[in-house]
Specification:
Length: 293
């Protein structure tokens, strides 16, 4: 197996890309990110078996298993979600006990929070020692609905068990987050209506609060029925506590009436959590700005 790693780490014509691949719809843990799409069939080996035990996944789900075998002469697996600009290359883990001349592969997939389709198709191809690709095959994943339909939805998702907080600043300067879960303000002298939580944007969940880990790793600010105020909005991410983790990759999106307005990724480290924002200060790392007409 050492020879396999040396080959495709050095002789693969497309260069490795730096970073965690936050621009991809599907990320592959432990794989190399390679520039450009999977190439055409050049007479190489095929992917002889694909095992997909989980046909339905959630946006942001990070431990989706995909396994199988490479036909004889196959030494590396190439994977790419349809619509992604780049692809991944993964080393197989060893020979199959039943089919002795075929290598097994085991991939762990992470699905982006920004996926907009109801299905994601992952293309797979094997390559031989000379880098010749074989025919592609497919693994299809249905995307489950995990949040209610909203007029405006701002989401923050991340890939490690840390206490990360989403904050959204609306055009009036009101910050929605764990310290103020709703932007609706009751008029002076009036009682709040029973459905006041639906009248503005609200935070649906405070994930991993103070390192009490729920592993949801996602927070949303939603305007379910109320019209979001026109103007400029800002999205912040605040690493309240790293919970012993060395690094966290995060991704924020904003959708208006189902249309993607903005999508951005970033990486934070434990030292980013040392300054906790106070009243009147910027609530964390500014990730993105967008405008509601």
């Amino acid at each position: 197996m050492i020879g396999v790693w040396l080959w495709w780490g050095c002789a693969e014509p497309s260069p490795s890309l730096q970073g965690p691949g936050l621009h991809q719809q599907v990320r592959v843990h432990g794989a190399q990110l390679r520039r450009g799409p999977i190439g055409a069939d050049a007479g190489g080996p095929e992917v002889s078996q694909v095992l997909r035990p989980q046909p339905e996944v959630f946006r942001g789900e990070a431990t989706v298993q995909l396994g199988g075998r490479l036909a004889p002469r196959g030494v590396a697996l190439h994977l790419q979600a349809e619509g992604d600009a780049d692809h991944w290359v993964l080393a197989p883990r060893g020979f199959d006990f039943v089919v002795a001349d075929e290598l097994q592969f085991a991939a762990e997939l992470e699905f982006s929070h920004a996926i907009q389709t109801d299905e994601v198709v992952v293309r797979l191809a094997a390559s031989d020692e000379q880098g010749r690709l074989g025919p592609t095959t497919q693994a299809r994943f249905l995307i489950a609905d995990d949040v209610p339909a909203a007029r405006l939805m701002v989401s923050l998702g991340w890939d490690a068990p840390v206490d990360l907080d989403l904050h959204v600043m609306d055009p009036a300067g009101v910050v929605i987050g764990a310290k103020n879960i709703n932007s609706y303000e009751v008029p002076p002298g009036q009682l709040p209506p029973p459905d006041a939580w639906m009248e503005g944007g609200y935070l649906d969940y405070d994930s991993n609060q103070q390192c009490r880990l729920d592993l949801r790793n996602r927070e949303n600010v939603l305007w379910l029925t109320a019209d979001p105020a026109p103007g400029d909005y800002r999205i912040f991410a605040h690493l309240f506590a790293p919970c012993g983790q060395p690094v966290v990759n995060l991704e924020a999106t904003a959708h208006l009436e189902g249309e993607l307005l903005v999508r951005v990724g970033a990486t934070q480290y434990p030292f980013d959590s040392r300054i906790h924002w106070a009243e009147g200060e910027v609530p964390g790392l500014l990730l993105a700005e967008f405008t509601v007409p």
